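Help needed: design a sequence for this.
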């Protein structure tokens, strides 16, 4: 490039400099602000639960059918899965840098739909979650109580019902969860000899419990058609779920 042009024409050089500065100021408001370039690959997390299943059974009945459907997703680099003895299955999908995480989540969800006919009914009933995730934790909070009556199960249940949802609603928070989550539950001990005599299997007992553990409308007293002179209409509230 000949520099003599700008040396011989100082006015032209000044005009070009002003144009460059103005264009820079106009483009400044559209430039992204980042200290470091985007180097973290997008991650999608798949989670499912198979109650009562061992790690081996959960891996074969839940993880395996899903893994067969995952290859072919756009920009998928690799995936890994873990199964625990409580029937929980967790799968992590890693995509190429620059992949739109929303599109990756949608494509993963579509593959889960294709695998659902091969999954156990109990897994489908509880649902398979597909969420965008990150390998980096922004913050960790510890919940404790000085009251000895508030054990770990109580604190876990309190955090799940009262804290986690509020944290998820904070602007910029992608997800929040409870480490070592414990939930209140009921354990039902079955008599195998009596069940064999009655011709029942554990799935029959589970189906009956699910049917009874529901909230049904109990009706209303004084609702039309009602006798003349009825002045009050009282809804009937009944306990439907097991407590």
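Sure. Designed sequence:
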């Amino acid at each position: 490039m000949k520099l003599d042009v700008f040396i011989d024409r100082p006015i032209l050089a000044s005009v070009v400099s002003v144009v460059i500065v103005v264009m820079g100021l106009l483009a400044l408001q559209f430039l992204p602000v980042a200290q470091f370039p985007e180097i973290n690959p997008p991650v999608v997390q798949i989670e499912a639960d198979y109650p009562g299943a061992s790690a081996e059974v959960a891996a074969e009945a839940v993880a395996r059918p899903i893994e067969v459907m995952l290859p072919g997703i756009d920009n998928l680099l690799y995936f890994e899965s873990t199964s625990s003895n409580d029937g929980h299955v967790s799968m992590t999908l890693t995509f190429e840098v620059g992949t739109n995480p929303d599109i990756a989540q949608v494509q993963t969800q579509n593959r889960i739909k294709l695998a659902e006919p091969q999954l156990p009914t109990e897994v489908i009933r509880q649902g398979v979650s597909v969420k965008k995730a990150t390998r980096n934790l922004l913050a960790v909070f510890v919940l404790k109580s000085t009251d000895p009556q508030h054990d770990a199960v109580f604190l876990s249940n309190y955090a799940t019902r009262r804290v986690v949802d509020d944290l998820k609603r904070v602007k910029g928070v992608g997800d929040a969860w409870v480490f070592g989550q414990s939930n209140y539950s009921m354990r039902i001990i079955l008599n195998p000899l009596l069940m064999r005599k009655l011709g029942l299997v554990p799935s029959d007992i589970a189906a009956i419990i699910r049917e009874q553990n529901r909230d049904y409308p109990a009706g209303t007293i004084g609702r039309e058609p009602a006798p003349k002179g009825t002045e009050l209409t009282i809804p009937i509230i009944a306990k439907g779920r097991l407590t």
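Residues 62 and 185 are 23 Å apart (CA to CA).
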